[in-house]
Amino acid sequence: MIVVDSCGWLEFLADGRWAEEYAAYFSEPEKIVTPSIVIYEVSKKIWREQGKEKALLVAAQMQQTRIAPLDARLALAASDVSLRWGLPMADAVIYATGTEYGCKVVTSDRHFKGLPGVIFIPRND
C-alpha cells in the first residue's frame, strides 16, 4: 500500500513531465490509499483549470482507491507530524495518513524530502 501525494496525482493525470515516474505507482489502484484532502487539492486545481465536469471525473477515478477520511484520530496524528517535521496542514495530513496506514508516501513535494517513509521523485524544475 502507498499514498500518492497531490502532486503525483496531478502529474499522472495530466501526463506531465514526470508522469512516467509516477505511472508504476498507479498500476494497482486498489493498493493506493488516498487521503480525503488529496481529493480536495486535486479536484480544486482541476476544477479551476479545466472545469467542474473534468474535476468530477477525476474525483470518481480517485475513488477507485482506498479513501482515508480525516477523522479526529488522524487529525491529532497530523498535528503531531506538523509540529515534529514542520509540515503545512495538508502535507501533515497526507504524511500522517501514510504513517497511520503503514504506507510509503510517493511525492515530489520538497516539504517531504528526507522524511522517513517517503519515496521522493525529484523534479528538476
What does this structure look like?
The protein is of the alpha/beta class. The N and C termini lie far apart (28 Å). α1 packs across α3. The chain has a single domain, classed as Rossmann fold. The protein has helices at 6-13, 19-23, 36-50, 52-62, 72-85, 89-101; strands spanning 2-4, 32-35, 66-68, 104-107, 118-120. A 5-stranded parallel β-sheet has the order 3-2-1-4-5. The chain is built from 6 helices and 5 strands; from the N terminus they run βααβααβααββ.
- The whole-angstrom Rg is 14 Å
What's the shape? Answer: globular
CATH class call: Alpha Beta
The profile of the biggest β sheet is:
5 strands, parallel
Q: What do we call the CATH homologous superfamily?
A: 5'-nuclease
Q: Roughly what fraction of the amino acids lie in strands?
A: 5-15%
Structural class: alpha/beta
The helix/strand series, from N terminus to C terminus, equals EHHEHHEHHEE
Number of helical elements: 6
Number of strands: 5
Oligomer: single chain
CATH topology tier name: Rossmann fold
Main sheet: strand order: 3-2-1-4-5
How much helix, percentage-wise, in residues? Answer: 40-55%
List unreliable stretches of 5+ residues. none
Termini separation comes to: 28 Å
CATH architecture: 3-Layer(aba) Sandwich
Mean pLDDT: 95
How many domains? 1
